[in-house]
Amino acid sequence: MNESWTEFRRRIAEIEALTGAAGILEWDQQTYMPPGGAAHRGQQLATLSGLSHARLVDLELGRIIEAVREVGEAEGDPVKIAAARMMGRRHERARRVPERLVREQAEAASEGFQAWMKAREEGAFAPFLPALERLVRVTREIVACHAAAEEAEHPYDHLLEEFDPGSTTAELAPMFDRLAGELGALIEAIEGREGPAPLDVKVPRDRLAALNDRVARALGFRMEDGRIDEAQHPFTVGVGPHDVRLTTHLYEEDLLGTLGGTIHETGHGLYEQGIPDELAGTGLGAAAGLGLHESQSRFWENAIGRSLPFMRWLAPVIEEVTGQRIAPEALYGAANRVRPTLIRVMADEVTYNLHIIVRFKLETALVAGEIEAADLPGAWDELYERIVRVRPGDPVEGVLQDVHWSSGMFGYFPSYTIGNLYAAGFRKAMEADLPDLWEQVEAGRFEAILGWLRERVHRRGHMVDAPEIFRDAAGDRDPVADLVDTLWERQGRLYGVERG
Amino acid sequence: MNESWTEFRRRIAEIEALTGAAGILEWDQQTYMPPGGAAHRGQQLATLSGLSHARLVDLELGRIIEAVREVGEAEGDPVKIAAARMMGRRHERARRVPERLVREQAEAASEGFQAWMKAREEGAFAPFLPALERLVRVTREIVACHAAAEEAEHPYDHLLEEFDPGSTTAELAPMFDRLAGELGALIEAIEGREGPAPLDVKVPRDRLAALNDRVARALGFRMEDGRIDEAQHPFTVGVGPHDVRLTTHLYEEDLLGTLGGTIHETGHGLYEQGIPDELAGTGLGAAAGLGLHESQSRFWENAIGRSLPFMRWLAPVIEEVTGQRIAPEALYGAANRVRPTLIRVMADEVTYNLHIIVRFKLETALVAGEIEAADLPGAWDELYERIVRVRPGDPVEGVLQDVHWSSGMFGYFPSYTIGNLYAAGFRKAMEADLPDLWEQVEAGRFEAILGWLRERVHRRGHMVDAPEIFRDAAGDRDPVADLVDTLWERQGRLYGVERG
């Protein structure tokens, strides 16, 4: 009986070791690898990903998963049952897409990235179009493979399943529409008002690094099980709870942007460090989807990291580390300025979600065949004007701004806003559970907050999907209302407007 | 005809990608990995090494190698012939050792390392003995596997083959004996004489790092294809000519030790960066043995890096980078002090080889069954007294000082002295080829030197074994005489003695 479980764990541990090794190579690629290393790195990563894919689609693994399912049900063992369900789903999904299509996807992604770079250099969409058309066609073919095996209300659901298992287009679309309307009302209310001033300080790089280290540790990030390095585009890699690598970018002219980025990545890192050891080798020792992962980074970055109590704790820390004396209210105001702009990654907390909603509308329409790749520039500009209230001057600031589509990553963008919604729900639920929450933040005591997240989110790994984890943690809260409430409360007050 | 070659290259490239990935993980483990990462790293490395071993022993690879050999001979293609010979040898050697023994070796090594650490802590040999006995037994069993398939004059040759293919015990033993005698005479001559003074300077870590960078670049190390980081025990990892990682240790109180270590690793790194791109995926794109690898590090460290012309170039560089003004003669004297001591890794250029000769005598006797593990402490102390002219006070300074045996690494030590011998031969051959060699060194022009090594050593990869590369580069020089000559010339003069 236990043989299948032992063999299952051996095989999953091997897959996890391969993806863990690839994770370190990817981290290295963006932190320390010398430029010439790219020549070798591509082959190394392709080899590792080919080997783990081959192990995942192995028919024998399918039989072992089935045996684990039977044993788990006979024993009533929740870990075995969940492991069989989770790995069974990954195994089946991987098997549905033929080798030929996996290869074409990889080729199209590589071609797409080159074409996207070229298009950005030339400031024109046309050089990207043929590659994007191919990527859209391949994506639709992959969706068709899943659709042939499994029903879904919307073809886009088959892509969501990859990044946010358990989320559906039918649930997200009306939430996103409501959110767009509500955020539009807030933006309209504060439009033309002066609001808080930006900061005007310069902090040397070594002081920024010291501050990042200090803040990440204070929030509970274990440096014996992780580290912080610099990267051009910050990201976090966790190859297991005891090796979690945060990266950050040091902007000497942007203290709050630097710190906000670090707090964001620390949120991701705390999630990775909170995955229970005993789930290693089961396939369940991982985040329950990218949206939930993003909820952890956004919770710390926005709910905690942009709050006035946090700034009251932070201001003396900044002074101690950098010698700069900045009033907490000045930090708080500067961190919460709102202004519709064109670039998603530079957006403030309020307008950020509007950028995501535009991409969600375009992606769902593309996958459903309602629009084609050639329609994207026009549709993009029109939606930006209507939803974000700004119109791109050129495609580099518009349809070409993000890298995702150039590698065929459709279905990923919603996770950013799913994360913001979950984070808002967690915040309200936590406020109910921890009545002195904000006193603790002001005192720089973050253990109870982290403890709440550990207990309600992290320790569950991927035993169940994110929507279930959210419901168990936050009850039947309405996260759209929660998010809009907190933004009105914070930004409305800073801009001197009240909700109508 | 070409199908077998294409398939051969695909398979070898996969093995190289796996070992390259493992190389980066090992580098990371000793530079940036957080302590907790060890929990995951063991499994990652074991998985990668298991996968590359399985690929190497695959019977189908054996058939493909045979087909490549036939095609190569029919076409008269030297690369195919060499590739088939080299990979055929590795494939056969790997196949001879049964899976059971490979696993037992890994277990014994892991147990051995723990026991060695414990023994060092307790300052006693006894806690290490049972594990060492097992390691010796396993090593003898592995040797027996090879002996059953292939004749050799001495059983130790089967171990040499792993690290220094082409070297034999019958050739090394008399060379090492001659060398021990000659070095003994030099040491005897300078015994009791005062000799040059050590340096007494302190350099801050960031200045040491800047100096390392400056010197490595000056020697020709390409930073776009490599980097330098800090590690407890310096080493170099090359995962291909475009990604070579040097490591070094910054000793604030030991300027010359720090620089010497960096020049040593730079020598290794220059070799790795000099392997031709076109040998990738053939199994020939690698160093032709550890002794030849060591010859490159020792050549730069000793022949160049301890020379007076080098110090004349280095002194103003040190002054520029650190602000310390030290006369070239003072640097030269301090870098060439001779004093018999107990610890190999701290030894000077003259006595260093005596440490290796002791280990070589013990290892060959162990493998031949002439002594047993329990005899090692006594035999060690006796040989140290006779050959190195010092007697260890306790086993930590004696038989327990090196890590190698604790992981069953028998056959590795000779490569250090093989490297010194080759380096001395290369130096003399180069002096004949480049009449203004030392003027170039004094002027900080190292291109012609590196060019000589590139042409005679690096560009050959592992097309042939090291002894053939040495003969082609240095003719029929006697490297023992070359090494002893240069030491008498340098240290004899510094200590004011003449060769009898």
Class by helix and strand content of chain A? Answer: mainly alpha
Strand order of the largest sheet of chain A: 1-3-2
Largest sheet, strands/sense/barrel of chain A:
3 strands, mixed
Number of helices of chain A: 20
What proportion of the residues of chain A is helical, as a percent range? 55-70%
Which word captures the global form of chain A? globular
Number of strands of chain A: 3
**Which series of helices and strands of chain A comes N to C?**
HHHHHHHHHEEEHHHHHHHHHHH
Highest CATH level, the class of the largest domain in chain A: Mainly Alpha
Strand content of chain A: under 5%
- Spans of chain A of at least 5 consecutive residues whose pLDDT stays below 50 are none
**Which CATH architecture of the largest domain in chain A is right?**
Orthogonal Bundle
- CATH topology term of the largest domain in chain A: Neurolysin, domain 3
Largest interface: A-B, 38 and 38 residues
Nearest-angstrom radius of gyration of chain A?
A: 23 Å
Average of the residue pLDDT scores of chain A: 96
The number of domains of chain A is 2
**Spatial separation of the terminal alpha carbons of chain A:** 64 Å
